[in-house]
Design a protein that fits this description.
heterodimer, A: 176 residues, alpha+beta, Gyrase A, domain 2, Alpha-Beta Plaits, 2 domains, 4 helices, B: 102 residues, Folate-binding fold, four-stranded antiparallel beta sheet, two-stranded antiparallel sheet, 6 strands, SoxD_sf (chain B), sarcosine oxidase activity (chain B)
Chain lengths: 176, 102
Protein backbone atom coordinates (compact mmCIF):
# COMPACT_ATOMS: atom_id res chain seq x y z
CA UNK A 1 0.00 0.00 0.00
CA UNK A 2 1.30 3.39 -0.88
CA UNK A 3 0.84 6.55 1.10
CA UNK A 4 1.84 10.16 0.76
CA UNK A 5 3.54 12.00 3.62
CA UNK A 6 2.58 15.64 3.97
CA UNK A 7 4.57 18.34 5.69
CA UNK A 8 2.19 20.44 7.77
CA UNK A 9 4.86 22.38 9.63
CA UNK A 10 4.63 26.14 9.48
CA UNK A 11 7.13 27.85 7.22
CA UNK A 12 10.34 28.53 9.18
CA UNK A 13 10.58 32.00 7.69
CA UNK A 14 8.26 34.47 6.01
CA UNK A 15 9.74 37.29 3.94
CA UNK A 16 7.40 40.00 2.75
CA UNK A 17 7.67 43.53 1.48
CA UNK A 18 6.04 46.23 3.62
CA UNK A 19 3.84 48.88 2.00
CA UNK A 20 5.78 52.11 1.40
CA UNK A 21 5.51 54.94 3.94
CA UNK A 22 7.20 58.22 4.71
CA UNK A 23 10.91 57.91 5.50
CA UNK A 24 12.97 60.92 6.54
CA UNK A 25 16.67 61.41 7.16
CA UNK A 26 17.33 63.97 9.89
CA UNK A 27 20.66 65.58 10.68
CA UNK A 28 20.76 68.02 13.58
CA UNK A 29 23.40 69.06 16.10
CA UNK A 30 22.87 67.45 19.53
CA UNK A 31 22.42 70.94 21.05
CA UNK A 32 19.23 71.49 18.99
CA UNK A 33 17.88 67.96 19.38
CA UNK A 34 15.46 68.70 22.23
CA UNK A 35 13.92 71.74 20.48
CA UNK A 36 13.26 69.79 17.33
CA UNK A 37 11.90 66.78 19.20
CA UNK A 38 9.43 68.99 21.05
CA UNK A 39 8.27 70.64 17.82
CA UNK A 40 7.71 67.30 16.08
CA UNK A 41 6.15 65.64 19.13
CA UNK A 42 8.55 62.75 18.66
CA UNK A 43 11.38 61.95 21.03
CA UNK A 44 14.84 61.73 19.42
CA UNK A 45 16.89 59.20 21.41
CA UNK A 46 20.56 60.06 21.89
CA UNK A 47 21.97 56.54 22.15
CA UNK A 48 22.95 54.96 18.82
CA UNK A 49 20.52 52.14 18.00
CA UNK A 50 17.74 53.34 20.32
CA UNK A 51 14.20 53.95 19.02
CA UNK A 52 11.27 56.10 20.08
CA UNK A 53 7.70 56.00 18.79
CA UNK A 54 4.76 58.40 18.96
CA UNK A 55 1.55 58.85 16.94
CA UNK A 56 2.50 56.13 14.44
CA UNK A 57 5.89 57.71 13.74
CA UNK A 58 9.16 56.19 14.82
CA UNK A 59 12.62 57.72 15.27
CA UNK A 60 15.82 55.70 15.22
CA UNK A 61 19.15 57.14 16.31
CA UNK A 62 21.68 56.12 13.63
CA UNK A 63 24.62 58.25 14.76
CA UNK A 64 25.47 61.03 17.20
CA UNK A 65 23.75 63.61 14.95
CA UNK A 66 21.72 61.44 12.59
CA UNK A 67 18.21 60.03 12.90
CA UNK A 68 15.93 58.03 10.65
CA UNK A 69 12.23 58.78 10.99
CA UNK A 70 9.47 56.59 9.62
CA UNK A 71 5.89 57.78 9.59
CA UNK A 72 2.62 57.13 7.80
CA UNK A 73 2.23 58.76 4.39
CA UNK A 74 1.27 62.45 4.67
CA UNK A 75 2.40 62.94 8.29
CA UNK A 76 2.91 66.55 9.38
CA UNK A 77 6.44 66.08 10.72
CA UNK A 78 8.31 68.03 7.99
CA UNK A 79 5.96 71.00 8.43
CA UNK A 80 6.40 70.98 12.21
CA UNK A 81 10.18 70.82 11.83
CA UNK A 82 10.22 73.68 9.31
CA UNK A 83 8.39 75.91 11.79
CA UNK A 84 11.32 75.80 14.24
CA UNK A 85 14.08 75.92 11.63
CA UNK A 86 15.48 79.26 12.84
CA UNK A 87 15.75 77.98 16.44
CA UNK A 88 17.04 74.54 15.54
CA UNK A 89 18.84 74.49 12.16
CA UNK A 90 18.69 71.00 10.70
CA UNK A 91 18.53 69.00 7.51
CA UNK A 92 15.42 66.90 6.95
CA UNK A 93 15.41 64.97 3.70
CA UNK A 94 12.62 62.82 2.30
CA UNK A 95 14.19 59.45 1.42
CA UNK A 96 10.93 57.49 1.16
CA UNK A 97 11.78 56.22 -2.30
CA UNK A 98 15.39 55.32 -1.55
CA UNK A 99 14.78 52.08 0.27
CA UNK A 100 12.32 49.24 0.45
CA UNK A 101 11.48 47.49 3.70
CA UNK A 102 11.34 43.72 4.06
CA UNK A 103 9.74 42.02 7.03
CA UNK A 104 11.35 38.77 8.13
CA UNK A 105 9.42 36.72 10.63
CA UNK A 106 9.37 33.16 11.86
CA UNK A 107 11.64 30.96 13.95
CA UNK A 108 14.40 31.01 11.30
CA UNK A 109 14.48 34.81 10.89
CA UNK A 110 17.56 35.20 13.10
CA UNK A 111 19.38 32.44 11.20
CA UNK A 112 18.47 33.99 7.85
CA UNK A 113 19.99 37.33 8.85
CA UNK A 114 23.03 35.64 10.37
CA UNK A 115 23.90 34.11 7.00
CA UNK A 116 24.86 37.51 5.56
CA UNK A 117 25.14 39.99 8.47
CA UNK A 118 28.49 40.08 10.31
CA UNK A 119 26.85 41.66 13.36
CA UNK A 120 25.59 39.40 16.15
CA UNK A 121 21.90 39.66 15.24
CA UNK A 122 20.80 37.21 17.94
CA UNK A 123 22.33 39.51 20.60
CA UNK A 124 20.37 42.57 19.41
CA UNK A 125 17.84 43.68 22.01
CA UNK A 126 14.17 43.70 20.98
CA UNK A 127 13.12 47.26 20.19
CA UNK A 128 16.50 48.37 18.88
CA UNK A 129 17.83 48.75 15.36
CA UNK A 130 21.21 49.05 13.70
CA UNK A 131 22.73 50.05 10.42
CA UNK A 132 24.96 47.23 9.27
CA UNK A 133 25.92 45.39 6.10
CA UNK A 134 24.16 42.46 4.45
CA UNK A 135 26.70 40.82 2.17
CA UNK A 136 28.34 44.26 1.63
CA UNK A 137 25.03 46.08 0.96
CA UNK A 138 24.25 48.69 3.62
CA UNK A 139 20.99 47.84 5.39
CA UNK A 140 19.16 48.85 8.54
CA UNK A 141 17.97 45.94 10.66
CA UNK A 142 15.11 46.60 13.10
CA UNK A 143 14.32 44.01 15.73
CA UNK A 144 10.59 44.20 16.51
CA UNK A 145 10.28 40.92 18.38
CA UNK A 146 12.28 37.82 19.29
CA UNK A 147 11.58 36.38 15.83
CA UNK A 148 10.44 39.43 13.93
CA UNK A 149 12.69 41.80 12.01
CA UNK A 150 12.43 44.57 9.48
CA UNK A 151 15.20 45.32 7.06
CA UNK A 152 15.55 48.53 5.05
CA UNK A 153 17.44 47.90 1.82
CA UNK A 154 18.48 50.47 -0.77
CA UNK A 155 16.39 49.69 -3.83
CA UNK A 156 19.40 49.23 -6.10
CA UNK A 157 20.70 46.52 -3.75
CA UNK A 158 17.26 44.94 -3.29
CA UNK A 159 17.49 42.35 -6.13
CA UNK A 160 20.82 41.12 -4.73
CA UNK A 161 19.47 40.90 -1.17
CA UNK A 162 16.21 39.26 -2.28
CA UNK A 163 18.12 36.67 -4.31
CA UNK A 164 20.29 35.78 -1.33
CA UNK A 165 17.28 35.54 0.97
CA UNK A 166 15.44 33.36 -1.57
CA UNK A 167 18.38 30.99 -1.59
CA UNK A 168 18.48 30.93 2.22
CA UNK A 169 14.74 30.25 2.29
CA UNK A 170 15.13 27.33 -0.09
CA UNK A 171 17.82 25.85 2.12
CA UNK A 172 15.67 26.20 5.24
CA UNK A 173 12.74 24.50 3.50
CA UNK A 174 15.05 21.69 2.46
CA UNK A 175 16.07 21.30 6.11
CA UNK A 176 19.72 22.26 5.61
CA UNK B 1 37.56 38.37 12.12
CA UNK B 2 38.80 41.45 13.98
CA UNK B 3 36.46 43.06 16.48
CA UNK B 4 36.71 46.85 16.65
CA UNK B 5 35.31 49.07 19.36
CA UNK B 6 33.40 52.06 17.95
CA UNK B 7 33.69 55.01 20.38
CA UNK B 8 30.46 56.57 19.08
CA UNK B 9 28.27 53.44 19.26
CA UNK B 10 30.15 52.28 22.38
CA UNK B 11 29.98 48.75 21.06
CA UNK B 12 32.50 46.21 19.83
CA UNK B 13 31.57 45.17 16.32
CA UNK B 14 32.91 43.06 13.45
CA UNK B 15 35.57 44.44 11.14
CA UNK B 16 33.28 44.19 8.08
CA UNK B 17 31.31 47.22 9.32
CA UNK B 18 34.47 49.36 9.27
CA UNK B 19 36.62 50.99 6.62
CA UNK B 20 40.24 51.99 6.99
CA UNK B 21 40.84 55.66 6.15
CA UNK B 22 44.58 56.31 6.38
CA UNK B 23 46.85 57.79 9.00
CA UNK B 24 45.33 59.99 11.72
CA UNK B 25 46.40 63.36 13.12
CA UNK B 26 47.43 64.88 9.79
CA UNK B 27 46.15 68.43 10.06
CA UNK B 28 45.18 70.24 6.88
CA UNK B 29 47.29 73.41 6.49
CA UNK B 30 45.46 76.55 7.60
CA UNK B 31 46.86 78.59 4.72
CA UNK B 32 47.55 76.17 1.83
CA UNK B 33 48.84 78.84 -0.58
CA UNK B 34 51.65 79.76 1.82
CA UNK B 35 53.13 76.26 1.66
CA UNK B 36 56.23 75.40 -0.31
CA UNK B 37 56.23 72.46 -2.75
CA UNK B 38 58.19 70.34 -0.30
CA UNK B 39 55.68 71.02 2.48
CA UNK B 40 52.79 70.13 0.13
CA UNK B 41 54.54 66.89 -0.78
CA UNK B 42 54.94 66.04 2.89
CA UNK B 43 51.31 66.83 3.65
CA UNK B 44 49.94 64.85 0.71
CA UNK B 45 52.21 61.85 0.45
CA UNK B 46 54.67 61.38 3.29
CA UNK B 47 53.35 58.98 5.94
CA UNK B 48 54.83 57.38 9.03
CA UNK B 49 54.61 53.75 7.83
CA UNK B 50 55.05 52.67 11.44
CA UNK B 51 56.15 49.22 12.49
CA UNK B 52 54.26 48.80 15.75
CA UNK B 53 51.65 51.17 17.19
CA UNK B 54 50.09 53.27 14.44
CA UNK B 55 47.58 56.11 14.79
CA UNK B 56 44.97 55.71 12.08
CA UNK B 57 41.46 56.70 11.04
CA UNK B 58 38.57 54.31 10.59
CA UNK B 59 34.97 54.82 9.56
CA UNK B 60 32.03 52.89 10.96
CA UNK B 61 29.13 52.25 8.58
CA UNK B 62 26.71 51.91 11.51
CA UNK B 63 26.98 55.47 12.81
CA UNK B 64 28.67 56.93 9.72
CA UNK B 65 31.44 58.47 11.82
CA UNK B 66 35.19 58.65 11.43
CA UNK B 67 37.17 57.90 14.58
CA UNK B 68 40.80 57.31 15.46
CA UNK B 69 42.40 54.05 16.45
CA UNK B 70 45.77 52.99 17.75
CA UNK B 71 46.63 49.67 16.12
CA UNK B 72 49.78 47.61 16.30
CA UNK B 73 50.77 46.98 12.67
CA UNK B 74 52.78 43.89 13.63
CA UNK B 75 50.20 42.01 15.69
CA UNK B 76 47.13 43.70 14.09
CA UNK B 77 45.80 44.28 17.60
CA UNK B 78 43.72 47.39 18.30
CA UNK B 79 45.24 48.98 21.40
CA UNK B 80 42.47 51.55 21.70
CA UNK B 81 39.98 53.64 19.75
CA UNK B 82 38.93 57.21 20.49
CA UNK B 83 36.70 59.89 19.03
CA UNK B 84 37.90 62.15 16.24
CA UNK B 85 39.21 65.45 17.59
CA UNK B 86 40.47 63.98 20.85
CA UNK B 87 44.14 64.30 21.74
CA UNK B 88 46.57 61.64 20.60
CA UNK B 89 46.93 59.10 23.45
CA UNK B 90 50.32 58.74 25.07
CA UNK B 91 52.17 55.66 23.85
CA UNK B 92 53.96 55.36 27.20
CA UNK B 93 50.64 54.80 28.94
CA UNK B 94 51.16 51.60 30.99
CA UNK B 95 47.68 50.20 30.20
CA UNK B 96 48.44 50.37 26.47
CA UNK B 97 51.79 48.63 26.70
CA UNK B 98 50.31 45.90 28.90
CA UNK B 99 47.64 45.19 26.28
CA UNK B 100 50.26 45.16 23.55
CA UNK B 101 52.35 42.63 25.46
CA UNK B 102 49.46 40.20 25.84
Amino acid sequence: MTYEKHQFHASPILIEEIAPGLRLSLRVKPAHRATLARAMGLDLPSRVGARAAAHGAEALCLGPDEWLITAPEGAGLPKAARAVYSDAPHSLVDISDREITLRLSGPAAVDALTTCCPRDVAAMAVGTAARTVFDSATVIVWRDGPAEFRMDVWRSFAPHVRALLAQVETEFHAGL
Amino acid sequence: MLLIHCPYCDDTLPELEFTYAGEAHIARPADPSALSDAEWRDFLFIRTNARGPHYERWRHVGCGRFFNALRDTVSDRFLMTYKAGEARPDLNNPTLTREAAE
